[in-house]
Amino acid sequence: MYKIGRCDALFQCGDVTAGFPFSGRNRPEVCGHPLLRLHCINNITSLTISNQEFYVLKINKTSNILTLARPDLLGSFCSSTFTKTTFPPEIFELSPTYKSVNVFYLCDPFLSYPSSSKCPEIGPISLSENPEYHNTCRESFTKRELNMTHLENALRGGFEVKVNIDENACQECLSSHASCGFDQTFPSGVKCGPLYPPDADDIRRRCSASFSCGDQKDLMYPFWIPGREECGHPDFKLECNASFAELSISSVKFRILEVDYGSRVIRLSRSDYISNLCPLNAVSAPFEENVIPFAPATDMLTIYYGCRTELSQSVSTYVGEISCHDDVRSYYVTRNLFPLLSGVRGLINDFKGICRRNVSIPASRPALDTLERTPTPDNLKKALEEGFELAFNEDCSLCMISGGACGYNLISSRFVCYCDGWDHTKPPLLKNSDNSN
């Protein structure tokens, strides 16, 4: 069982700092509410609510008010991914000073609507505070906004939501020089525990042993499951079921296909692209490459969806067309070869403006080579299903060769090598390293 006394550390990412009731990075899950786990990628803090990722722009620790913004709504409004998100009322309270704006789209182009504008691919859109405003539009979603006149600026500025957690018990815990975490079995949800340093020998023994998850066996760093928080990187927590093991990065799920520490192979694939070239609401997921970089044989494939311009004349070895069973066109580009696309480079650079959205996906270079030689939907599916490889963390490789166990120091937010007879915060291999992996 994880010791509550290790919850005195704060979550830090960019300009955001958080303690109870949040967890994430150097704050294990037991330190915060299960719906309030923060993530940090490229110094940007994010929080997943009802399977929707939100950027956390600010946390007011006094009032427990979060300023959130949806990353998929930060660009052009017409290029947004329209989905409705529900905030669990038992913990989140939306500010009464904000309005719910219903956005209706795929509207009848022959009718006029108040507070409307036109998007290239989805036609007229209409804004209304009434969710039953009209039935001549086929789709809608709800968005809380501050300013209907400057919708895009309001979306970038975000909105406020209050976290309803009674912190009185936590304050009492802190005043007694103890540490507070979260436990749903306690009446207040707050569990109070003494402060003490981690047991280095216990951590080393735990992290030296491998574990199983789904169909994967003998797993170790950077992966972890509850109870092994100090044995893996915070961003590589696994979700296990009977068939496979997955991890979530920026609310995007990746499936583990293969892990072999002897041959130094870690192979993943995007779960939503297995047997599906056109998943709904797909977004790019930035990988934290300073933790585990891509292997040399991994490249990026970009798929552009909902393109309003006919580009079939530009289909070539490196540009292909795919069908998503709708009236608009979609294309893929093996973008590592952009310098060779002299004939269509200008057009490729304008893809983001021509197409409604794009998703960049890591893929195997050999699989992409096959796709370029034989550009078929089956080869595109195979390139996505075969996944991509990650390179091994070099510090971890040195640690394992020396007989140590790889892990993560939740206090210093750094990679650490747990070695027999050494303080785990100052491993012999890495004690002078500035590497924050």
From TrEMBL:
Pfam families: GUB_WAK_bind (PF13947), WAK_assoc (PF14380). Its main location: membrane. It is an enzyme of class 2 (transferase). PANTHER family: KINASE-LIKE PROTEIN (PTHR33138:SF11), OS01G0690200 PROTEIN (PTHR33138). The keyword Membrane applies. It comes from the Eukaryota. It comes from Brassica carinata. Residues 7-70, 207-270 form the Wall-associated receptor kinase galacturonan-binding domain. GO terms for cellular component: membrane. GO terms for molecular function: polysaccharide binding; protein serine/threonine kinase activity. This is non-specific serine/threonine protein kinase. Residues 145-185, 344-420 form the Wall-associated receptor kinase C-terminal domain. It catalyses: L-seryl-[protein] + ATP = O-phospho-L-seryl-[protein] + ADP + H(+); L-threonyl-[protein] + ATP = O-phospho-L-threonyl-[protein] + ADP + H(+). Its EC number is 2.7.11.1. It is a single-pass type I membrane protein. Keywords: Glycoprotein, Membrane, Signal, Transmembrane, Transmembrane helix. The keyword Membrane applies. It is found in: Membrane.
